[in-house]
Specification:
Length: 240
Amino acid sequence: MNNREAIISFSFDDFPRTAYTAGGLLLERFGARGTFYTACGLMNTANDSGEQFRAGDLESLLERGHELASHTFGHVSCRALSGAAFCRDVEKGAKAVEEITGLEATNFAYPFGHVSLETKRALGSSVSSARGIIPGFNGPEVDLNLLRANSLYGDVDSVGPAEKLIVENAQRKSWLIFYTHDVQPQPSAYGCTPALLARAVECAVRSGCQILTVQKALDWAGIQNGNSEGHAHRHVAASI
């Protein structure tokens, strides 16, 4: 990483509509934007985290400056499929995002945080980055195929650990990534309340860290993968 200032990214997985309608708008209040890891197979469905996104949400969040990233198509675990089958679903997910929006989703997150050495190698330089759920900080060296990220779950009584991470990140001048799912007053076990997200974003702003989407963080820190001239989403499965 070649950044001179600390960076923080807020990301949302799957994603439930409240991640955008509540979480995205909350970030905008602070002049910030988020990264939404999207599994298009969940579109127009509902589950324990509530109603999932609609096609119009993807276009809307892009218009408002947020980032759309990939999360496979069927929200599948690499532990449940062969390496080749998992990579085909990664490819299918990237194509679906492009068909809906006309834009490539060049960043990726592993569903459930499940990752194997086989799939980590297979993704290779076909994506700009692949984010996991192993906590910690990114930098000064970064594993682009397993970015570290920290959960933001629960209500305001969980804000303490998040604030400590933000303070330490500012001191380290590293890159801190948060992730959650739904954002609502009664969140799922994998979501957070608007109050918790607001407290975390407020702390991030006070810390002086740059609050950037994942792609803008990669650009800001001068990070490129081995295939920066063109991402090979269409050829992921061929590497296994």
